[in-house]
Design brief:
Blueprint: H1 2-89, H2 95-225, H3 234-237, H4 246-283, H5 295-305, H6 308-324, H7 338-369, H8 375-406, H9 420-453, H10 460-496, H11 511-531, H12 541-606, H13 613-634, E1 640-644, E2 647-651, H14 660-779
Antiparallel strand pairs: 1-2
Helix pairs in contact: 1-2, 4-5, 4-6, 4-10, 5-7, 6-7, 7-8, 8-9, 9-10, 12-14
């Protein structure tokens, strides 16, 4: 098939190549014709250029001639201008000279006029020739440009076609090479397939022998060891505990919870509807506070007063059904025993509706017979009577299907399993019919209430009661719509969940077997819980991880501490060097201070006595101050602390004035203490930074290790998932292969049995023939 397709493809490509080749010949011919036309146009252009050059030469000669004539005219005008004053002066001269000058002037004028006309004519001819030449030149240039563009386009088309032809040729050659390679590969595969078929035949033969031996062994084991097969009989298989499906149970519990909420809404709406209907009977058409109502309405009111005893059990039955659906049970129709209770409560409510339906219809007829009833109100009452009949019929239909669904849990032969899906579908249809009926009732009741509100005798009590009835009917309509949509959305799940039960059977046989199965399931779960023993104490995984992190952090902190010690030693050496440097600086400053004090003292001594009066007084005051300081220094005074930007300085009070050396020592000690404090703070900050750096480094390494472990775990998870998928594929393939082999073996065994039976028949026929021959021989 592949070779035929490739041959067809090759033929199509050859046809396209022949078509393109013919088009190429036509295009080449067109290109040659266009080139000839362009050459002819170029020759015409050359001829036009030559004629233009000739005309330009003639024009140049004419312009030169015109210039000569213009110069001659100027000379003649100058001579004329010179001759005029002479004529004025020589007016008395002879007539011959004047006549001669006039004749010459007339001749010159004529000649000049002729030359001017000829020059004008030549100018016109030259202008016309120039315009014509320009027009022809523009046309020829435009035509030449179009021809060049067409020639370029044709050339591009030709180049594209040649390129396309070359590409197609190369493609065909490559396809041919590929086809040759494919054919060789197919030949190799055919040879390998032949070898494989031979090997498979051998393997099949070996497998047939192996499986036949295994089959005999397994049959002997089954016959000897297995007392009975419980899955063979449906009665026994129904007692087997099915596989627990927690998702199914949670889903069913959720659905039961939603159904319980919807039923509660319906129960509330029904209670309100019956209660407000009872109130309305007491008000309209006759108010019981003013006059006695009819016996029919009194009996109808009594029955409606009992509605709670029939409606409330519906909610209780649904609540019991919801409580029976738990996570530990198996929820199917055979095990939902509480559905029978709900069906019985629904049946009692249907009996209540049947009991009040005639009274309701007669009450509506009584309203129609009243003198206050209009034609529109009478029509609404008739529609409501029809709606009430439909509502009762819908409830009866719904009760029939619910009772059918409750049969599998009580009477297994009452409903076949094949009819479950149809019953569920009919329940959904009945719920939708109930919703439609309630919509009609809501519509007609609202219209009736509007008409009654317009009556002149309508009291506020009647209006309020009608509004309450309409609101209850609307709530009942909404509840019915919710229930119908809820059941329609889940009916497929209900139908699909009917197959949930024991394996290899169509379902549970009877409610008794389902109950026994549930008891066995409880015993099995209790046994599984008893088997669970506490595991021996070991190091938890999280604690082991924390210990590993502590171990890694300790190694990191050891390295960090070693680095911190090295850095501290280097800083100590630097500080020692700086200390020596500053001690030298302090000694130099002390020497400079002593020299400065000596210089000041020498300068004070060298000053004059008159000028030293002030300083002497100052020295005296200083001496007195020093004496006072010495006297006060003997007294014990408390020190005073002053704070500044350079630190806390401890000094004496203002009354104490130490000498210069003590002051310098105090300042020096203060600065030294401040330097020591700053260096200690600096060392503390450096140590903290080193510690933080070590912690950050350890955390980064931990993060790197965590990332590596994450990547390794992800790779292992990927490999594990791949291996799982591969094993699943291998399992499916082996299962299919074994199934195929078993089917083939069974077919082969059947064929062998047939051949054996044929051989036996042939042997019997031969025996019969041999017996007949022996009898004949004896008779002879």
């Amino acid at each position: 098939m592949a070779s035929a397709e490739l041959q067809g493809k090759y033929q199509k490509l050859a046809q396209e190549y022949s078509k393109l080749r013919a088009q190429n010949q036509v295009l080449k011919k067109g290109v040659v014709d266009e080139q000839a036309n362009s050459a002819a146009l170029k020759e015409q252009l050359k001829m036009k250029d030559q004629s233009l050059r000739k005309l330009q030469q003639e024009m140049d000669s004419l312009t030169f001639r015109n210039l000569q004539l213009a110069k001659r005219v100027e000379l003649l005008q100058d001579e004329l201008a010179l001759s005029e004053p002479r004529g004025k002066k020589n007016k008395k001269s002879g007539d011959s000279s004047s006549q001669l000058s006039q004749e010459q002037k007339s001749v010159f004028d004529e000649d000049l006029q002729k030359k001017i006309e000829e020059n004008e004519r030549l100018h016109i001819q030259f202008f016309e020739a120039d315009e014509q030449h320009k027009h022809v030149e523009a046309e020829l240039r435009s035509r030449l440009a179009t021809l060049e563009t067409e020639a370029a386009q044709h050339q591009a088309v030709v180049d594209g076609l040649t390129r396309k032809y070359m590409e197609t040729i190369e493609k065909l050659q490559n396809d041919k090479a590929k086809l040759e390679v494919i054919s060789q590969a197919l030949e190799k595969e055919a040879k390998e397939c032949r070898l494989r078929t031979e090997e498979c035949q051998l393997q099949l033969k070996n497998l047939h022998e192996d499986l036949s031996g295994r089959l005999e062994e397994s049959l002997s084991v089954i016959n000897e060891k297995v007392p009975f097969n419980d899955t063979k009989y449906s009665q026994y298989n129904a007692l087997n505990v099915p596989v627990h499906n927690r998702r199914h149970q949670l889903k069913m519990r959720d659905i039961a919870g939603q159904a319980l909420g919807f039923v509660r809404d319906l129960v509330t709406a029904l209670l309100n509807f019956h209660t407000y209907t009872e109130q309305r009977i007491q008000i309209f058409p006759v108010d019981s506070a003013i006059d006695t109502i009819s016996p029919l309405n009194q009996r109808f009111s009594q029955y409606l007063h009992e509605n709670a005893s029939y409606v409330r059990p519906l909610e209780e039955g649904m609540l019991h059904l919801f409580e029976s659906v738990t996570e530990d049970t198996v929820t199917v129709l055979e095990t939902t025993v509480k559905l029978k209770t709900f069906s019985e409560h629904l049946t009692s409510y249907i009996c209540f509706l049947r009991k009040i339906l005639p009274y309701q219809l007669k009450s509506l007829e009584e309203e129609c017979e009243s003198s206050l009833c209009t034609s529109a109100l009478r029509a609404r009452n008739l529609e409501l009577s029809q709606d009430m009949k439909k509502m009762t019929a819908v409830f009866e239909k719904l009760q029939t299907y619910v009772s059918l669904l409750a049969l599998p849990s009580t009477e297994p032969d009452g409903l076949l399993r094949t009819n479950y899906s149809s019953v569920l579908t009919n329940v959904g249809a009945a719920l939708h019919g109930f919703h439609d009926v309630m919509k009609d009732i809501s519509k007609h009741y609202s219209q009736k209430a509007t008409i009654e509100h317009e009556l002149p005798i309508a009291t506020q009590k009647l209006i309020t009661t009608n509004d309450c009835i309409v609101s209850s009917v609307v709530a009942l309509t909404n509840g019915a719509g919710k229930v119908a949509s809820f059941f329609s959305n889940n009916v497929d799940y209900f139908i699909a969940s009917l197959s949930y039960g024991p394996k290899a059977t169509s379902g549970f046989i009877s409610p008794l077997s389902a109950e026994c199965m549930l008891q066995y399931k409880k015993k099995a779960s209790a046994y599984m819980k008893a088997l669970r023993k506490p595991l021996p104490e070991s190091v938890p995984y999280e604690e082991a991880l924390a210990n590993r992190r502590v171990l890694l952090s300790s190694t990191e902190s050891r390295e960090g501490l070693a680095q911190q010690v090295q850095q501290s030693l280097e800083k100590i050496s630097k500080l020692e060097q700086e200390k020596e440097h500053w001690m030298l600086e302090a000694q130099l400053a002390k020497i400079k201070l002593e020299k400065e004090n000596q210089r000041i003292a020498d300068k004070l001594k060298s000053t004059s006595p008159g000028q030293a009066v002030g300083p002497a007084q100052e020295n005296a005051s200083v001496v007195n101050a020093l004496g006072q300081e010495e006297a006060s220094a003997k007294a014990v005074l408390e020190p005073v602390h002053s704070t500044s930007l350079i630190g806390v300085l401890t000094r004496t009070s203002d009354s104490e004035l130490p000498d210069v050396e003590s002051r310098e020592d105090l300042i020096k000690n203060h600065y030294m203490a401040r330097i020591v404090e700053l260096t200690s703070q600096l060392q503390l900050a450096d140590s903290k930074s080193v510690h933080f750096y070590a912690e950050c480094r350890a955390l980064s390494k931990r993060l790197a290790l965590a990332e590596k472990s994450k990547e390794t775990l992800a790779e292992e998870m990927k490999v594990a998932s791949q291996s799982i998928s591969r094993l699943q594929d291998e399992l499916t393939t082996t299962k299919r292969s074994y199934e195929d082999q078993l089917s083939m073996m069974s077919d082969h065994l059947c064929s062998m049995n047939e051949t054996l039976s044929k051989q036996r028949e042939e042997i019997d026929t031969l025996k019969m023939s041999s017996k007949g021959n022996s009898k004949k021989n004896k008779s002879r």
